[in-house]
Write a structure and sequence with these properties.
Elements lengths: L1 H6 L3 H18 L21 E4 L7 E14 L10 E17 L2 E13 L12 E16 L2 E10 L21 E9 L3 E11 L7 E2 L5 E7 L7 E16 L5 E17 L3 E14 L2 E15 L9 E9 L9 E2 L24 E13 L2 E11 L7 E2 L5 E3 L10 E14 L3 E12 L1 H4 L7 E15 L6
Length: 468
């Protein structure tokens, strides 16, 4: 039966299905007692922050530092055959938090990032930022009745849910921040009302944001309304000036995104995560009709299973523009996601005009050691729309008649995390993209392999030692 099923698949998919099937058989056939440990999916962090005590420090002040170095190697940099690159991405984050009263918290954080080993003309904007203000905010907080309320104003991070819609993209050397305001109401059941503008990184000068506040929203995180369910409805507003419509007319983009993310547990050791949203509005003189849907379902093996495997399947779909209506703009706007490993470890593609199916298998050989194996199948949703990068820009523009194939390619990834003595976190991984017909037919057919090894360490200094 298994042989019949595999033989019915295309060659590339048969290869991935065989690998996933054999790995599952191997893991599930090895039985022993053990503690339940699951892979910490990005953007979750592993490892603790090491605490140090300094008696001279005021009790209302905390000093923190995070250092990270990640060496990466690529075989086809920027889709160019034999364009091998090896470089090191370094990042230092230092911060000071002050709490002058019980209702006021202030925070300032610097960032210093470099891409060592790359010529400057090949260094992208998310790799280098020489000593700049990364965050600087004031939090005024209290309660109304029993409900916690806080107002955060200044340069800050926005992280919501799985970060597939709004996240800081922490894997990037220059993670994302916003300038603006966030009114936060509640605690475990919480609503954020924010009005912000994303910060633009200038590698050798001060970072800035665009004129005015352009990104607004209401994002709820409801954890106690439905048993075993985490529900997060949201409404987002995006205002972009100076766009050009499909007819070449200049104007503004006014876009509304409304949707929800839901995650929870199912019977028989299954769990799930789903996110769906629609976009409406105007793009100069065109109307916006777009949307996205993603779903993940995982099965976690019982505690008696060796290496605690968790097997999952994932589906992602973001609309593209088929140009059937000349006045309709149907390419989904991915907003500001944390896109690392959303569409393969090579991080070449974004959540626009995208369809992906993926198989995930993670195991835990030890409580401090986790491994993730993934096989993904990447396609464009519409052949007459472009292939988009992880930043949302068009990497390959579709010809007038559209792409001859919708197959971007397939990817196989193996990644691992190990925590040394609670505080030092090692990340290692390799990913390989097998180019599909679309890439091969449009001068982007170089197979891409990326490998990396990184170390992260975090510390905080208080008057009294406090690990976190």
């Amino acid at each position: 039966m298994t042989r019949t099923f595999l033989s019915a698949l295309p060659t590339s998919r048969r290869r991935f299905a065989t690998i996933a099937f054999l790995l599952a058989l191997f893991v599930l056939s090895c039985v022993r007692a053990g503690a339940q440990t699951s892979y910490a999916d990005y953007p979750q962090k592993r490892g603790k922050t090491e605490g140090f005590a300094w008696s001279e420090l005021p009790k209302w002040m905390t000093v923190s530092l995070e250092t990270r170095s990640r060496t990466e190697g690529q075989t086809s940099f920027s889709y160019v055959q034999n364009a091998d690159r090896t470089y090191d991405l370094t990042r230092a984050l230092g911060s000071v938090e002050v709490r002058p009263t019980s209702h006021i918290t202030g925070y300032m954080q610097f960032i210093d990032t470099h891409a060592l080993g790359l010529p400057l003309h090949t260094v992208s904007s998310n790799m280098r930022d020489v000593f700049d203000l990364h965050q600087g905010w004031l939090n005024v907080h209290g309660t109304a009745g029993r409900v916690p309320i806080s107002v955060i104003s200044g340069r800050q991070e926005l992280r919501f849910g799985s970060e597939r819609i709004i996240g800081v993209s922490d894997w990037s050397n220059n993670s994302r921040t916003w300038d603006g305001f966030d009114l936060r109401i509640g605690d475990r059941n919480r609503v954020d009302l924010f009005s912000t503008s994303v910060v633009t990184v200038h590698p050798s000068s001060l970072d800035t944001h665009g004129a005015g506040l352009t990104f607004h929203g209401a994002y709820a995180q409801l954890t106690h309304f439905i048993p075993r369910v985490h529900l997060s409805p949201y409404v987002l507003f995006h205002d972009v000036r100076g766009v050009t419509s499909l007819q070449g007319i200049k104007g503004n983009e006014v876009e509304t995104t409304f949707g929800s993310e839901i995650q929870g547990k199912l019977p028989a050791r299954f769990c799930y995560l789903a996110n769906g949203s629609l976009q409406r509005g105007s793009y100069a003189n065109d109307s916006i009709h777009a949307g996205q849907a993603l779903a993940k379902v995982y099965y976690s093996a019982p505690a008696s299973i060796f290496w605690q495997p968790r097997l999952g399947v994932e589906y992602n779909y973001a609309t593209g523009n088929d140009h059937s209506n000349p006045l309709r703009y149907a390419t989904y706007d991915q907003q500001y996601p944390s896109n690392h490993n959303a569409f393969g470890n090579v991080d070449l593609f974004g959540y626009q005009n995208m369809r992906q199916e993926r198989i995930n298998l993670d195991i835990a050989p030890a409580p401090s050691f986790t491994i993730l194996v993934q096989g993904g199948f990447l396609n464009v949703a519409e052949r007459k729309d472009s292939v988009y990068s992880s930043s949302g820009s068009a990497t390959i523009k579709a010809p007038t008649a559209g792409f001859a194939s919708n197959v971007i390619g397939q990817e196989l990834d193996v990644t691992g995390k190990y925590v040394f003595h609670d505080y030092l976190v090692a990340n290692v991984g390799v990913g390989h993209l097998f180019p599909g017909a679309l890439l091969l037919q449009n001068k982007h057919g170089a197979a891409e392999t990326i490998g990396y090894f990184g170390l992260t360490y975090r510390l905080r200094v208080d008057q009294v030692k406090a690990d976190r």
